[in-house]
Design a protein that fits this description.
By secondary structure, the chain is an alpha/beta fold. It is built from ten helices and 13 strands. It folds into two domains: 162 residues, P-loop containing nucleotide triphosphate hydrolases (Rossmann fold); 106 residues, STAS domain (Transcription Regulator spoIIAA, 2-Layer Sandwich). Strands 7, 8, 9, 10, 11, 12 and 13 form a seven-stranded mixed β-sheet that branches. α4 packs parallel to α5. The protein is elongated.
């Protein structure tokens, strides 16, 4: 998040409260340190909670609030200030905020908003996708940036895909694990949070894979594991997949996609495909 620059309009899709806190706190702190005006529009989180995030990370928000550099308000007083969502009015407001921030001597404007309000029965909420597309013009080429927050536990996959495409980029979540041979990354694919396994799973990294699978099992809906960039996995690693699938509850299934054909046959020979919660899709030939 420290690398976010002027002109960025990014989509943050998260399924963990701690992940939201870490990402948002880093984004807000970086803006304050760079002398930008920082505006935050809360919804699920109370404004006081956001202040506590900063304080807990070693940044006293009091002085910034007192001088007007940091402004935290609710969705009801920002996106829904008129009792409904006025997409064009909000775009105009953000443009005015950019101009006002620069005129006040700040180095730019940094905005982040929780978008859960769009799920309520609010007049104008159906223009959310249109708004996200239009607001790109506010930030593109200007001394401003924004991170829009979407909770994957609340928004459906279709909506997440649509809003993600209407941003200039997405926030890359911190890998669950990374070393010289393996990277376990979280990405949004077709509107669903997915675990990407990149590299080698062997006796050195099987434990890391098992731990990551335990984490992603708490995500909403089925667990999705993308093996497109898997270079090697031993039997212990494949056993970890089957065992993690067997521990799923509430009708969840684990979809292991793009696994090499040979490994799919191994799963069948060993009998792990008897686990009903494990769904394996082979990699297309030549992929």
């Amino acid at each position: 998040m420290e690398d976010v620059g002027h002109g960025d309009h990014l989509c943050l899709t998260f399924a963990d409260d701690d992940e939201q806190r870490r990402v948002v706190t880093a984004y807000l702190r970086a803006g304050l340190e760079r002398g930008e005006r920082v505006k935050y529009f809360s919804d699920q989180c109370a404004p006081e909670q956001v202040l506590d995030w900063l304080d807990g990370a070693g940044t006293d928000p009091g002085p910034a609030v007192a001088r007007g550099q940091l402004q935290i308000t609710t969705a009801g007083r920002s996106y829904l200030a008129g009792g409904s969502f006025d997409a064009d009015g909000m775009v105009a407001t953000l443009q005015q905020e950019v101009t006002a921030s620069l005129a006040a001597g700040y180095t730019g404007l940094r905005v982040s908003g929780e978008m859960g309000w769009a799920l309520r029965d609010v007049p104008g909420a159906d223009r959310l996708h249109e708004y996200e597309a239009k607001v790109n013009a506010v930030f593109d080429g200007s001394r401003a940036s924004a991170v829009c927050q979407y909770d994957a536990r609340r928004f459906d996959a279709e909506t997440l895909t649509a809003v993600d495409r209407r941003h200039s980029g997405s926030v890359a979540l911190e890998p669950l694990y990374v070393d010289t041979v393996l990277r376990l990354a979280r990405t949004l694919q077709n509107g669903r949070l997915t675990l990407r396994v990149i590299g080698v799973v062997d006796h050195r990294t099987t434990g890391a894979l098992a731990s990551a699978l335990e984490t992603v099992s708490t995500w909403p809906g089925d667990v999705r594991v993308d093996m497109t960039q898997l270079e090697f996995i031993d039997l212990a690693g494949m056993r970890a997949l089957a065992q993690a699938a067997g521990r799923l509850g509430n009708g969840q299934r684990m979809h292991v996609a793009n696994l090499a054909e040979l490994l799919c046959r191994v799963i069948s020979v060993v009998g792990w495909d008897d686990e009903p919660a494990l769904v394996v899709t082979p990699r297309e030939a030549g992929a």
